[in-house]
Amino acid sequence: EKTDEAHRPIIFAEESNQSDALWKLSLQGRIDRALDRGEIYLVYQPKVDISTGQMVGVEALVRWNDPARGQISPAFFIQECERAGRMDHLTQFVLDEAVKAAVLLRGHGIDAKMSVNISATLLRDNRVERMVQQTLREHNLPAHLLVLELTETARILDLDHAVTVLERLRLTGCSISIDDFGVGAANLEVIYKLPLDELKIDREFVANVQNPKAAAVIGSMIAFGKAAGIVVIAEGAEDAQTIRNLADLGCNIIQGYGISRPVELADLLQFQWTTTKPTAKNMV
Ligand code: C2E
Ligand code: MG
Ligand code: MG
Ligand code: MG
């Protein structure tokens, strides 16, 4: 057991002089060790219905606090995880923690849905379905309290196959959400063909809601959601004015720093959102 190994920074592909196979092995080892040592953990960001003030959902977001390098951005290490063939392992960990957290929230009388990010690249086979079923059963969480947020839908190669996998997943009772909608190549065919319950408007549009074109796009997503019976959520709303503009467009379910930053589970239990009408002072 080379204990000093674990504290050395991860060797990334571009700076590695090892063979690809060796590099993959060492990264796998580091990810597994980080999981074992509790360096990887979850934080939770509320989704609030601003028309009622109720926290209707919570998104689980993974964090890696490496003792040598500090916080490593998930956008970065998830990509590394994927390249090391460890996404199913990480996803199982996240599902497990998130489902346990949802059970704990329920125990405190909070019936918020728990969202877990799932890389669409995992839809190639039935592993996610098995993981979801086993995890819900193990912790005894009703399936309707679990939402799977599909990220990287642009990388779905076989849309028809993804439809089949998602239909089976939905039969287990959980909901399917499309993340970051509108950017990348998460295109109209995806929302047209995939069985969906929720659509998350990417923060690129949300941040620019004061722009008439962005507002028109958001408005049409809301209209689409209404017509198709799909819940539309705005992500990345950073301030009171943005939240008010979203509400004016009919978008009431909102997530973002303007509501709450991602927080630890204990803080989530204390979370309460109080409607504060923007005053002249905090209006932008
Ligand atoms: P995402 O799923 O779209 O999550 C939203 C990201 O935006 C999160 O970043 C969140 O902290 C950040 N955010 C929330 N509100 C605001 C806001 O008002 N302003 C700004 N500027 N940012 C805001 P984070 O946690 O760094 O995650 C980045 C991405 O990494 C996620 O984007 C998701 O695609 C991926 N990710 C995170 N956790 C997991 C996971 O457990 N599994 C998988 N497959 N992907 C994950
Ligand atoms: Mg997400
Ligand atoms: Mg998102
Ligand atoms: Mg995003």
TrEMBL record:
Domain EAL: 24-276
Record's protein name: EAL domain-containing protein
Full-sequence portion shown in this chain: 485 to 768 of 768
